[in-house]
Design brief:
The protein is mainly beta. It contains 2 helices and 26 strands.
Length: 265
């Protein structure tokens, strides 16, 4: 159903009228209205237009949340209650393909995993950037893969046992065989952190993309923070700990723009 509206001039009632975006630009008059009728209709229709405009806008921004989740590997369930999305995972690894993976500032995504070394691979198959402005919590590792870009906004709070965010793809086959090879040599999108990312002692935060921007806060006490710019990168991970990495193929215009605060000593 079309949920985008605009206003057109109704010359019968001498007022603006809410119509579908595919309607013609004006409505032809069939009869002449009196001034009194016009004023009454104008007042009512203006309020109606405002009502529709506010409610249509509210509908579009009230719930960003992850949408269209389909488990493509492993076992997990997805549930939503109000502004909270919960993923319950029962296998050590699970891969979920999402139409979109974003949150507004009032939204929460919780991953409930078997243990701290469990991994949930979240792969976005839609066309929009993942814009995360809310909370993301997990007792295990969370991977977010989106070729359109990943942005942790200034209000975002990430609390996980480990985090990998990338615009490069990781296949389910490699993922399930502990081959963490992220590759997409044609990709030129950005992973950016403006928010607060926290992992526990010994945890790993890895941001992987041709362009990385870090102006937020990353806390990984006695752990690892990796900003890796390139088009083909392999991580050597063991139970969530980063043992090393290899940039198999760089990018001619690879860029790391880093500021903010790092705490990983």
């Amino acid at each position: 159903m079309n949920k985008i509206y605009r206003l057109v001039w109704n010359s019968t009632h001498l007022c603006w009228q809410v119509v579908s975006e595919i309607a013609k630009g004006g409505i032809v008059a069939e009869q002449t209205a009196t001034k009194k009728e016009s004023k009454i209709t104008l007042g009512f229709t203006t309020k109606l237009a405002a009502f529709f405009a506010v409610n249509v806008l509210s509908a579009s921004i009230a719930f960003a949340g992850p949408t269209g989740g389909v488990v493509s590997s492993g076992t997990a369930s997805i549930s939503t209650a109000g502004t909270t999305t919960t993923i319950n995972q029962s296998t050590s690894k699970a891969a979920i393909d999402w139409s979109s993976f974003s949150t507004n500032s009032n939204e929460i995504v919780n991953f409930v995993q078997p243990n701290s070394s469990s991994i949930t691979l979240n792969r976005v198959t839609g066309t929009n950037t993942s814009t995360l402005n809310g909370q993301l919590n997990a007792n295990g590792q969370v991977f977010i893969i989106n070729p359109n870009g990943v942005l942790f906004g200034s209000t975002s709070q990430v609390n996980t046992a480990g985090l990998v965010a990338s615009t490069l793809n990781l296949s389910n086959s490699d993922f399930n065989n502990n081959l963490f090879n992220f590759s997409n040599t044609s990709n030129n999108k950005v992973v950016e952190n403006r928010g607060k990312i926290t992992v526990p002692t010994g945890g790993t935060v890895a941001l992987i993309a041709p362009t990385i921007k870090q102006t937020g806060t990353i806390k990984a006490p006695q752990g690892n923070v990796l900003l890796a710019a390139g088009g083909d990168i392999t991580l050597n991970l063991n139970n969530g700990s980063l043992l090393g990495y290899t940039i198999n193929q760089g990018k001619a215009q690879a860029l790391i723009n880093s500021g903010g605060m790092w705490e990983h000593q």
